[in-house]
Amino acid sequence: MEPHECLTHTEKWVKDVIMKYNICPFARREVERASIRYVAIEETKVAKVLNALIQECQYLDNHPQTETTLFILPRGFEGFYPYLDIVDYANDELVEQGYEGIYQLASFHPDYCFEGEPQESPANFTNRSPYPCLHIIREASMEIALASYTDPESIPERNIAFAERKGSDFFVTLLQNCTK
Q1: Is 103 exposed, middle or buried (0-12, 13-18, 19+ CB in 10 A)?
Q2: Alpha-carbon distance values, 12 to 100, 112, 117 (Å)
Q3: What digits encode the pLDDT tens for the residues 49-74?
Q4: Which of 130, 131, 132, 117 is nearest to 163 (CA)?
Q5: 20 to 30 A from 50, CA-CA: which of 25, 58, 108, 132?
Q6: Which residues of 58-79 are buried (b: 16+ CB within 10 A; e: fewer)?
Q7: Which residues contact 142 (CB under 8 A, 6 or more apart)?
Q8: C-beta neighbour count of 153 within 10 angstroms
């Protein structure tokens, strides 16, 4: 697979799943503004991935018109547990590089599984994506978005209820369609 393919697939996932089904109520605005950056990282070594993550934070520092980045890891982190390790390392790196409170990470993976949930639970699909992905979010923007949203604490529960109503097969098909 070529890097541009995973970018296309991820953008399709954002539009056809996340935005269309309102999984993230803040996504539509950024899609319509074209302020989401999609970056595929070909590195598989942890240190190089973390270096690329910090470079992406620096990019965001210098490009305020880019609201957020989907930092896609198409190779090397296909397994969910190695992926969770890179999420932990990435969060630590943000702190070490002085980005705590400036950026936060949301995580998505094709095999995402919430702690305590069975692997086949529809709830897991709220965080499943075509490829392992770290979503770099500007904390200041998130604070503004959350302040203007009534009952933001209900978003995860609403998404889980929607996923359970639709069922796993529905989401499997959606994800498969994103990579066609």
Answers
A1: buried
A2: 30, 19, 27
A3: 999 999 999 999 999 999 999 999 99
A4: 117
A5: 25
A6: eebeeeeebbbbbbbbbebbee
A7: 104
A8: 8
